[in-house]
Design a protein that fits this description.
CATH superfamily of the largest domain: FAD/NAD(P)-binding domain
Number of domains: 2
Number of strands: 20
Shape: elongated
Structural class: alpha+beta
Bound molecules: flavin-adenine dinucleotide
Distance between the termini: 43 Å
Oligomer: single chain
CATH topology of the largest domain: FAD/NAD(P)-binding domain
Length: 404
Amino acid sequence: MKKVAAADVVIFGGGIAGLWLLNRLRQSGFSAILFESGSLGGGQTHKAQGIIHGGMKYALQGVLSADSKAMSEMPERWRQCLQGKGEIDLSAVPVLSSQHYLWAPTKFGSKLAGFFAGAALTSKVESLSKEHYPAVFQHPDFKGEVFSLDEIVIDVPILIRELVKANQDAVFKIEPLCDEELKFDDHGKLVSATVYMAGKAVEVSAQQFVFTAGAGNEVIIRKLKQPDVAMQRRPLHMVMVKTPFNYPLYAHCLGLGARPRITVTTHHTQNGSTVWYLGGQLAEDGIHKDSATQIQAAREELQTLFPWLDFATAEFASFMIDRAEPKQKGGMKPETSFIKVIENIIVAWPTKLALAPKLAEEILQQLQAAHLTQHLFDIRELRSWPMPPLAMPVWEDAFCKSAG
Ligand SMILES: Cc1cc2nc3c(=O)[nH]c(=O)nc-3n(C[C@H](O)[C@H](O)[C@H](O)COP(=O)(O)OP(=O)(O)OC[C@H]3O[C@@H](n4cnc5c(N)ncnc54)[C@H](O)[C@@H]3O)c2cc1C
């Protein structure tokens, strides 16, 4: 006989979007379960630099966009959670830096002050005196300027662990979902999805199905064939540097263009190494380079920006990753988070880790407005299914594999 399970809401995808949503749904009284086909956080989420943007990076273009406005509320919302006072208790998640910095490698003087005034964000950008610069910029050879931004940087792998903690009974590992396993009725409503694991199959029904599967949303998009639900991928070529020194740095470097020339965050491996994780324009420009060429570009950039540091003995690693997002005209960066409701299906992308609370709120409002009537819950057939593993931080994977 066919094995079945049911819940009010079934979520596909255990990155930040799915896990934040699962927490909010269960707190709000919905029966909800989540299926993950890889590892928890192992898509884009674990590759994030952990910056809870306040909109500054986007205002580098000199215009305060809708994106910047939505973003500007995020640091405070996350701070509440990190202090145990917000919508989810994240008091066990370390704040790697209580502020992010912006540095100009040379003095911009009045031009820079004018830029900040133009960006209408002066209250959130503070010019620092040298004694308050991050340690790496205290060096006499640093001739630029440093500003602090209203942005925090958090430990993403621990964030994911904490979001999973209270939901271990509701998170299940599955094999990759095929679109043939999705059963629709004549009105386009998704009736059930059959999920597989280690030779077992369970047909799962729900009142609402939510796809927060990042690039994996392609499965449902193919099936829906709706012109206004499409995905784009924007690749990045990220670089990690195991440094021979211990300077914690969380900062965007102001370049000539609209994007930060380089964005640095700092992470520590389990065996105590310090890793600088590099994004920004460097990662955007590196998408057509092989790893060796990208690493060489990163070495040269670091040596130009930090001539007083010696990177000769630093270890480098790089990897490519796609940002999976709703399709935009000309492949542009989306303005904000995205949800699309089609019958009882929601397709969602946060587009930024920082926007996961906003995305979950919008989905919750959608479900509350849909007035789910029955309270479906029968997961007996899933009880013996494994939980997906937590993903390994990318810097552990790159530099500590042999130690494990
Ligand atoms: C290099 C990089 C740096 C970034 N830095 C930042 C930053 O500093 N700050 C910020 O706010 N944002 C940042 N972002 C953006 C942010 O990481 C993403 O917007 C966010 O993590 C997306 O989360 P998600 O849950 O939608 O997707 P993912 O994290 O990709 O999660 C999707 C999950 O779904 C699973 N899955 C796929 N298919 C299926 C299926 N069929 N069934 C079940 N599960 C499935 C995958 O295995 C994966 O675990 C960064 C992104 C990148 C790539």
